[in-house]
Amino acid sequence: MDLRELLSIPYLLEAEAVETEPGQWLLRLAYPELPGCTAEGAVVEDALKELERRRIEMIVSLVEQGKEPPIPRRPLAASDPLWTVQDLGLSGRVAALLGRTPNQST
Known about the structure:
The chain has one domain: Double Stranded RNA Binding Domain. 38% of the residues lie in helices and 18% in strands. It has 4 helices and 3 strands; from the N terminus they run αβββααα. A 3-stranded antiparallel sheet has the order 1-2-3. Helix 3 packs antiparallel against helix 4 (92-99). The longest helix is centred in the middle third of the chain and has 21 residues, at 44-64. The two termini are 15 Å apart. Mean pLDDT is 88; it is low at 101-106.
């Protein structure tokens, strides 16, 4: 699988709202199939963006190390990981890696 396909794999999302003080809530999000891929925040959208950023960074790091991330299900055909990378403001390096064909070297 190339990086584009790996970034298009849908992972289970766990969400938990925790009352940190009376009337104050914190949202905890995680992709349990990607160990250590978690995020917290007071605003759902912010926590979800941070979780997505961590998911992408984790998968890219594993690929760069020559390791394969967990593949619990097939990639989504309609996914556009390049758009997601750009929307999250991730480095140009990730976008450049996505632009490569599977036969190109690092």
